[in-house]
Amino acid sequence: MKIVQIGTGGFGKNHARILSQLGVLSAICDMNASRAKEFGEKYSVNHYSSLDTLMDSEKFDAAFVCTPTSTHFDLARKLLEQKKNVFVEKPMTYLSREGEDLFKLAKKNKAILTSGYIERFNPAVHLSKNT
Ligand SMILES: NC(=O)c1ccc[n+]([C@@H]2O[C@H](COP(=O)([O-])OP(=O)(O)OC[C@H]3O[C@@H](n4cnc5c(N)ncnc54)[C@H](O)[C@@H]3O)[C@@H](O)[C@H]2O)c1
């Protein structure tokens, strides 16, 4: 299993660390080239400052998209069009229509599309819902 990390900012860097620990991180992409270099070197994987260049150069099974929400739809669509499995940080998209389009594309291309559900497993959320 090879997974690429798109976006290594406040939250993406956590995903990159865990993917590396799991031994599945295969490349890093961040439009901020110095961040891409920093994390590529840190985890000894290739690094890119554009998704297009990464997709032209790397073979991989899945991508984690952890960029600003306004960019999720375009990045996830590009990946799903190439039949890649995609995790998109929450919120998946700004518009529910965009989310529905991604869902349809994933279904058509038999790819997995999922998002971050961290709060579902947050004990504080469970407690407040159940009291
Ligand atoms: N920070 C959190 O605690 C947190 C928690 C849960 C979810 N999220 C979600 O994660 C996503 C990212 O948040 P963040 O706080 O890490 O943002 P951030 O601004 O800290 O980092 C975003 C990174 O993406 C890069 N980037 C921007 N556009 C890009 C593109 N087109 N291609 C490649 N790289 C690009 C930026 O250079 C930056 O390094 C958001 O959707 C946010 O809602 C964040």
How do the strands and helices of this protein lay out in sequence?
Elements lengths: L2 E4 L5 H10 L3 E5 L3 H10 L3 E3 L2 H7 L4 E4 L3 H13 L3 E4 L7 H13 L4 E3 L7 H7 L2
Parallel strand pairs: 1-2, 1-4, 2-3, 4-5, 5-6
Helix pairs in contact: 4-5
The structure holds nicotinamide-adenine-dinucleotide.
Describe the protein.
This protein is of the alpha/beta class and 131 residues long. It has a single domain (3-129), classed as 3-Layer(aba) Sandwich (Rossmann fold), CATH 3.40.50.720. The chain is built from 6 helices and 6 strands. The protein has helices at residues 12-21, 33-42, 51-57, 69-81, 96-108, 123-129, and strands spanning 3-6, 25-29, 46-48, 62-65, 85-88, 113-115. Strands 3-2-1-4-5-6 form a 6-stranded parallel β-sheet, sandwiched between helices. The termini are far apart. Bound molecules: nicotinamide-adenine-dinucleotide.
Can you say what the CATH homologous superfamily is?
Answer: NAD(P)-binding Rossmann-like Domain
Largest sheet: 6 strands, parallel
Task: Output the number of helix runs.
Answer: 6
Q: What is the number of domains?
A: 1
The CATH first-level class comes to: Alpha Beta
Fraction of residues in H or I helices: 40-55%
Order of helices and strands: EHEHEHEHEHEH
Strand percentage, roughly? 15-25%
Low-confidence stretches: none
| Alpha-carbon Rg, integer | 15 Å
Based on the structure given, which CATH architecture is correct? 3-Layer(aba) Sandwich
Distance between the termini: 42 Å
Structural class, from helix and strand content? alpha/beta
Integer average pLDDT: 96
Anisotropy-based shape = globular
How many β strands by DSSP? 6
Task: Kindly report the CATH topology.
Answer: Rossmann fold
The order of strands across the largest sheet is: 3-2-1-4-5-6
Task: Provide the list of bound ligands, each named once.
Answer: nicotinamide-adenine-dinucleotide
